Target: Aminotransferase
Amino acid sequence: MSFLAERLARIKPSPTIAMTTRAASLRAEGRDIIGLSAGEPDFDTPPHIREAGKAAIDTGRTRYTPVDGTASLKQAICDKFARENGLDYTPAQITVASGGKQILFNALMATLDAGDEVIIPAPYWVSYPDMVLLAEGRPVIVECGIADGFRLTPQALEAAITPRTKWLILNSPSNPSGAGYDRAAMQALTDVLLRHPQVWVLADDIYEHLVFDDFAFVTPAQVEPRLKNRVLTMNGVSKAYAMTGWRIGYGGGPEPLIRAMGKLQSQSTSNACSISQYAAEAALNGPQDYIHDSRAVFQRRRDLVVAGLNACPFVRCPTPRGAFYVYPSIEAMIGRTTAGGTRIDNDEDFANALLDETGVAVVFGAAFGLSPHFRVSYAAADELLAEAVARIRTFCEGCT
Model:
């Protein structure tokens, strides 16, 4: 009998963390490494938010809080949903956890029984399928290729729904592709969902504020109010306010679901860090100039990376609508050999050879459920991005 639980055999370690760890190890050995594998803004948390965290420490707000969030943070979240999304939630319909990942995990663990199905459009964030598997559910992967703009079509959604479908996970803008659903595209999906009342929607809105050009963000419950009672709207402060390490995520949804998630959290982590909660409150209630300024920087970086990658042989890089990733196709690279002698049979070969031969760390597309692609995070300084793109171009030009 194995000492470790059988459920662990269903999942794998995060490939994005694995690539970031490998890059760090090579850097520690003295290699010149440019890491573009982590999904983390490279800016400092805004000063007024940092000051709120310090004030929480200085005034002794360092004790336990209610399991799923302080009353004042829940109210700030309600105000945010009303102000920015046109969604009316009460504090009893809000839950706060240690990051958006815990919100997703709690929701799936609290609702899935063995064999329940969860529709996940691919490419997807690497943790979605493994969370479903840990909860004994069945991930139903629907490939959304470059021809569809990496977006789920209503026809594909309809075809994927069965009597066992319990959730659709929808991430807009998307990690890894940056694809987003405008109002018309979102309405087309919600029209399908209205015909299937057993299907709930887990809306991962973590990149809500990182949108470019004329793209206007919408969330499912906003577009179709009739779905609100079966939507969990998840968000957080990590990406919008450069607060990844503060670990605060939140969700709004029907009160029975929120209570169930709180019950689960009460027997796992209990409350999120009290200091971080007060900082998150300052982020949501305070000035929002930072979001506009950082968005402009990310859009400039996006344009730099898209143009540079499209100048590389064998690479095709669509222009994303949001987030801070690009998801280029390397279909034309498969079967070629690098200057260092590595044959590229798949996108994992590509990512490993790129790191070994150029020192540029990216994540291979198979990690996100759609190949042959790779993901670049452009949450890095302009000069590093320019150097990385130049190295990738040299690498591609050396392939035969």
In short: Residues 343 and 349 are 8 Å apart (CA to CA).
